[in-house]
Amino acid sequence: MSAPLYSLAFRTVFSRMDPEQAHHLVTRGLRAAHRLGAGRILESLTRPEEQLAVQVLGQKFPSPFGLAAGFDKGASAVLPLGSLGFGHIEIGTVTAKAQPGNPRPRLFRLLADQALINRMGFNNDGAAAVRRRLERTRQKVQRLREAGRHAPVIGVNIGKTKIVPLEGAVEDYLTSTRTLAPLADYLVVNVSSPNTPGLRQLQEIASLRPLLRAVQTEADAAAGSHVPLLVKIAPDLADEDIDAVADLVTELGLDGVIATNTTISREGLETPAAKVSVAGAGGLSGPVLAQRSKEVLGRLRERLPEGVVVISVGGVVSAEDVAQRLELGADLVQGYTAFIYQGPMWARRINRELLKLMAQLRAKRGSV
Ligand SMILES: Cc1cc2nc3c(=O)[nH]c(=O)nc-3n(C[C@H](O)[C@H](O)[C@H](O)COP(=O)(O)O)c2cc1C
């Protein structure tokens, strides 16, 4: 669907629907189209150019741009989403036990800000069910790669089951790690979603150190080889806390940091406060997040040793945004909210424009 067509469909159909229903409708449509053989056609239109490929976390990413966690929580549409041109798909957040998430409505659009507020609360089928889906997906990825076709890198993002108390968090994350690490190209410990009570307390170093250490050991043991491990942090952390997380990542020899998750702040919005407050509690995402996300990226890059990966996410809309994050030192870039507003050809458009921008950047660097 072209950008003007999607924009029309968005204005006339999707924006009038409950956002979560619209999400399911689009995902189901994409999966059906894929089953009917549209994957190959889409792929021929959207496959990232070879020059966009980057080597990160010991593997080849077909593009530095990928889909952030939360869109495909249960790994049910990895390949259909990959066929839209994303270089990687981060599935999850997955918890050890299946859980329904918060009561609906729990996803809200702020059209004037092209933003979203969500309090989904890690609705997902649980690690065991997701594992079965990932096993099947992995086999298909293998076949696609053997045939020289595009397949995305698959990241797996894990979080804490809501009913498990914080004291049991490490064991809970370890269950997900054992179950899913063998199927992950990289694993993410999510301690930054605002919608699971107490979760963000795990970002405190005294809690984070034992958690990350345990997951790091378990992931490699379960997979029988090294699984790159990253931690995903909130934009609401104070600068000193970001430095402290960076120092911990260095101390533990972790592979990287994903920055950032959604914010609990409501500052900087165009949408009238009364409308914002109707949405209620939850994480805010979209362009309003970009400034803080870039600050956190800059801070991490300065503090972390070279070689430790930073994945930048938060408010990315255009290829220029992606290029800017790369210039600021990100190794990979992700987006979610703009996908809802821009439609299925978003990644393709970013890849095409990014190719030109990267060529300009290389020429500029080469001429210095
Ligand atoms: C509806 C929705 C659900 C999300 N669910 C998750 C999640 O389960 N785990 C996670 O780590 N991040 C989740 N996120 C956060 C995104 O991965 C991303 O970090 C954030 O939205 C900022 O990027 P954006 O401005 O491009 O959306 C979610 C975001 C949205 C909008």
UniProtKB/TrEMBL annotation:
<keyword id="KW-0288">FMN</keyword>
<protein>
    <recommendedName>
        <fullName>Dihydroorotate dehydrogenase (quinone)</fullName>
        <ecNumber>1.3.5.2</ecNumber>
    </recommendedName>
</protein>
<comment type="function">
    <text>Catalyzes the conversion of dihydroorotate to orotate with quinone as electron acceptor.</text>
</comment>
<keyword id="KW-0472">Membrane</keyword>
<feature type="binding site">
    <location>
        <begin position="336"/>
        <end position="337"/>
    </location>
    <ligand>
        <name>FMN</name>
    </ligand>
</feature>
<feature type="binding site">
    <location>
        <begin position="118"/>
        <end position="122"/>
    </location>
    <ligand>
        <name>substrate</name>
    </ligand>
</feature>
<feature type="binding site">
    <location>
        <position position="190"/>
    </location>
    <ligand>
        <name>substrate</name>
    </ligand>
</feature>
<dbReference type="GO" id="GO:0006207">
    <property type="term" value="P:'de novo' pyrimidine nucleobase biosynthetic process"/>
</dbReference>
<feature type="binding site">
    <location>
        <position position="195"/>
    </location>
    <ligand>
        <name>substrate</name>
    </ligand>
</feature>
<comment type="pathway">
    <text>Pyrimidine metabolism; UMP biosynthesis via de novo pathway; orotate from (S)-dihydroorotate (quinone route): step 1/1.</text>
</comment>
<dbReference type="GO" id="GO:0044205">
    <property type="term" value="P:'de novo' UMP biosynthetic process"/>
</dbReference>
<dbReference type="InterPro" id="IPR001295">
    <property type="entry name" value="Dihydroorotate_DH_CS"/>
</dbReference>
<feature type="binding site">
    <location>
        <begin position="69"/>
        <end position="73"/>
    </location>
    <ligand>
        <name>FMN</name>
    </ligand>
</feature>
<comment type="subunit">
    <text>Monomer.</text>
</comment>
<dbReference type="Pfam" id="PF01180">
    <property type="entry name" value="DHO_dh"/>
</dbReference>
<dbReference type="GO" id="GO:0005886">
    <property type="term" value="C:plasma membrane"/>
</dbReference>
<feature type="binding site">
    <location>
        <begin position="261"/>
        <end position="262"/>
    </location>
    <ligand>
        <name>substrate</name>
    </ligand>
</feature>
<feature type="binding site">
    <location>
        <position position="286"/>
    </location>
    <ligand>
        <name>FMN</name>
    </ligand>
</feature>
<keyword id="KW-0560">Oxidoreductase</keyword>
<feature type="binding site">
    <location>
        <position position="315"/>
    </location>
    <ligand>
        <name>FMN</name>
    </ligand>
</feature>
<dbReference type="InterPro" id="IPR005719">
    <property type="entry name" value="Dihydroorotate_DH_2"/>
</dbReference>
<feature type="binding site">
    <location>
        <position position="260"/>
    </location>
    <ligand>
        <name>FMN</name>
    </ligand>
</feature>
<keyword id="KW-0665">Pyrimidine biosynthesis</keyword>
<comment type="similarity">
    <text>Belongs to the dihydroorotate dehydrogenase family. Type 2 subfamily.</text>
</comment>
<feature type="binding site">
    <location>
        <position position="73"/>
    </location>
    <ligand>
        <name>substrate</name>
    </ligand>
</feature>
<dbReference type="InterPro" id="IPR050074">
    <property type="entry name" value="DHO_dehydrogenase"/>
</dbReference>
<keyword id="KW-0285">Flavoprotein</keyword>
<feature type="binding site">
    <location>
        <position position="93"/>
    </location>
    <ligand>
        <name>FMN</name>
    </ligand>
</feature>
<feature type="binding site">
    <location>
        <position position="190"/>
    </location>
    <ligand>
        <name>FMN</name>
    </ligand>
</feature>
<dbReference type="GO" id="GO:0106430">
    <property type="term" value="F:dihydroorotate dehydrogenase (quinone) activity"/>
</dbReference>
<feature type="binding site">
    <location>
        <position position="232"/>
    </location>
    <ligand>
        <name>FMN</name>
    </ligand>
</feature>
<keyword id="KW-1003">Cell membrane</keyword>
<feature type="active site" description="Nucleophile">
    <location>
        <position position="193"/>
    </location>
</feature>
<dbReference type="InterPro" id="IPR013785">
    <property type="entry name" value="Aldolase_TIM"/>
</dbReference>
<feature type="domain" description="Dihydroorotate dehydrogenase catalytic">
    <location>
        <begin position="52"/>
        <end position="358"/>
    </location>
</feature>
<dbReference type="InterPro" id="IPR005720">
    <property type="entry name" value="Dihydroorotate_DH_cat"/>
</dbReference>
<feature type="binding site">
    <location>
        <position position="157"/>
    </location>
    <ligand>
        <name>FMN</name>
    </ligand>
</feature>
<dbReference type="GO" id="GO:0005737">
    <property type="term" value="C:cytoplasm"/>
</dbReference>
